[in-house]
From TrEMBL:
Signal sequence range: none
Stored Gene3D superfamilies: HAD superfamily/HAD-like (3.40.50.1000), Putative phosphatase, domain 2 (1.10.150.240)
Lineage: Bacteria, Bacillati, Actinomycetota, Actinomycetes, Kitasatosporales
Protein name stated in the entry: Haloacid dehalogenase-like hydrolase
Domain of life of the organism encoding this protein: Bacteria
Organism listed in the record: Streptomyces hesseae
Amino acid sequence: MTPYPSTTPRTDHRYAFTVGFDLDLTLVDSRPGIRAAYAALAAATDTHIDLDLVISRLGPPLVEELRNWFPEERIAEANALYLAGYPQHGIAPSPAMPGALDSLAAIRELGGRSIVVTAKNPRNARLHLDHLGIDADELIGDLWAEDKALALRAHDASVYVGDHIGDVRGARKAGALAVAVPTGPYGAAELRAAGADVVLPGGLTDFPAWLRGHRAGPTG
């Protein structure tokens, strides 16, 4: 698994196609774990953090959220404390999103491979995948919004699935089909307005059937 973006083309001709996925609120319902990790950070730093507000706007990099609660001179400290405590607090409470395992299974059945491209710290992202048995072929962390296109292009992904408008922007910059799931902070209408090519109203539970139709179509 690759814990960083590779700009070297990684096309693997053993596979017919590659699908990329976001992690938080796409493959993993990390809200309970992130809430617990922020609660621990608030206690450790004696800082007020509105936990409900934090988990209502997941997606952007950690430091962007921390700037809402800490002065700039304390961001590095808060970031390090959060990341260090996340394995203890963030992994066990966080289940797979409905349809996540079936989606990766459908990709394999059709001869494809799956990659995870996330803004999350790659070590903690890997812990989520291993804990839940989400067996993606590659993991690339620390990429957000348009920067996700670096990994999507490098791994020749033709589809990218995410819950955030930042995921839509990353897919479009990469020239990949932007498939959105309304399981995060945005509804279907907002995701379409942001440029999503496809919105799956049932989240990943709709993905296997959509993928089979997509691969069977004239451009499949």
